[in-house]
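Aim 2 progress update. The chain analyzed this quarter is reproduced below.
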Amino acid sequence: MNKINIKDLGPEELEDFVINLGEKSYRATQLGKWIYKRGVSSFDKMTDLSKDFRASLSQAATISSLKMIEERISFDGTKKYIFGLFDGNRIESVLIPENGRNTLCISAQVGCALGCTFCLTGRVGRIRNLKTSEILDQFLEVNNRNNGSVTNIVFMGMGEPLDNLENTVKALKTFTHPDFIGFSPKRITVSTSGIVPKIRELGKQISVNLSVSLNAPTDELRNEIMPINKKYPIRELIEESARFPVPRRKTLTFEYVLINGVNDSDEDARKLGDLLMGVRCKVNLIPFNEAYPLPYKSPPDERVFGFQKVLLSYGLHVRIRKNRGRDILGACGQLAADYPLNNKRAYKFSNQVKED
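Predicted structure tokens:
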């Protein structure tokens, strides 16, 4: 009999699992507390469970963990973690300390299928979805390694979370369950490149912060740098995103990666301002993070500030995101877990990516 990994079960599934073992549903809460709050990975140590129940659990289930391959620390304090998966694949998570917060950026897939031209992960291509347990274990391992100091979680690592919607939702429900990990939904953000029907579906199942990678003010340009736009154009994406049920007193976020000479002109800013007028949102401007073999350059600071100034004139709330962890390839768009790009080109880590 194949054993079930307990961490692959969402809260409702865990209740069904213990009931099928002949136990009361509240045993699921006890299990959750042992695993997620106390960090226990052996059923034998769960002393408030009967010996018979522990024996049944040992026969039917396992409790996973991730193998940490390497920790890399940036000069700015950012930490990147490379994890090895059971099948030999690898993923990356990034811990970003800033202003009394420790934000953990976690991955939802090995690689990514969406092919955004400014992202190293897109160069890898989609290898597979992460299991619920593999999503959760990134947090559990990093949080434990950093003395329980993680304050915020963002699904902004490798992959498109909504392309792995089922496991993303199960992980979110475990993160936010008060008797399991117990994170406030206000401290969790899911980022998406814009799979419109799945934004709608996510909103039906859970309320967390939503961050939408926009990155262009016209369909023509967005089609070029984000192929998903050919299926779900900008206005449709913005309208659906504006309906998403973010937590109370929180607002929708649009991310905009500024690429030198591509999408960073004042005219681009004016078109973006026109698009977002009347939408309750904030805009994060992210200067492009350069990495071989991506063909783009980061704009100069004066261009970034000029773009922000135009957007501010539209009454938008606009913030320039600091680039963190660039020297360890831990910044936005740089996560690729040292995979050969396009599964053909070998490359290795140094202060920037180079061909072997």
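The first helix runs from residue 11 to 20. DSSP finds eleven helices and 16 strands in the chain. These observations will guide the mutagenesis experiments scheduled for the next reporting period.
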